[in-house]
Amino acid sequence: MDYEANRRVETSARTFAIVEQLSGVDRLGVSALADELGMSKGIVHNHLSTLRELGYVRKVADGYQLSPRLLSVGLRARSNAPLYRFGHDLCREFAAQFDTGVLLCQHSDSDCTVVDAHGVPSARDLAVGTTLSLAASLVGAVIRLAADGSLPSETADAYDTDRLRAAFDGDGSVTGRLSTAHEGDCVAVPILGAAGTCHGGVAVLLPEGQSDQRRTRLTEATRSLRDRIERRFDSEWPGERSFATEKHSWVG
Fold this sequence. Notes:
By secondary structure, this protein is of the alpha+beta class. Helices cover 44% and strands 20% of the residues. Helix 2 packs across helix 3 and helix 5 runs antiparallel to helix 8 (212-235).
């Protein structure tokens, strides 16, 4: 399922490798970047100079760091994505009503990224921008099943794939551990557009120590949340409230 470019441009690949490397630290010097990425200092310096000229990197003391301009690009990309536009306010209302965490995850070729998070404790390390594996996360599994009906072999290391398929085929939702890298259970559902394209998924965190009745109610409400978001895709919802606004009922 991972996309491979027909004519890969190595220069572009090197630029984004530098951006990715800088994204995980405060700043790095040319020598450290060259060592980490296996590039010559000259090539690294040329890439950094270009990024600096374009405003995406800045020089700080003896190193380089990403500039806030990348943040503005990311925020604009998120705002333009239909999944975020159609799901943001509904996920926020859901988190407040049920006092639990909600993650809205956008699908890409090889993973999914948290583009919206509400009610999630900071200790869970699930902030906006977190990448979740399609193979080793529950929301990734439902996205794969909705997108092409497949599950990568690696998923079997993390989940009972027969149970996942049976649950998904039943009502389109699955419950279980959020991911191999994150503790706690969740309910996960995919979000499909009008043409059947899978745009991503929603993961609703299931608080520990809750009764089976509350977990069941959260599961039902998550499916209702999915339906409400998908109706906006079907109607090309403009994002404006009117007197014909949707009812605030999550179940039934």
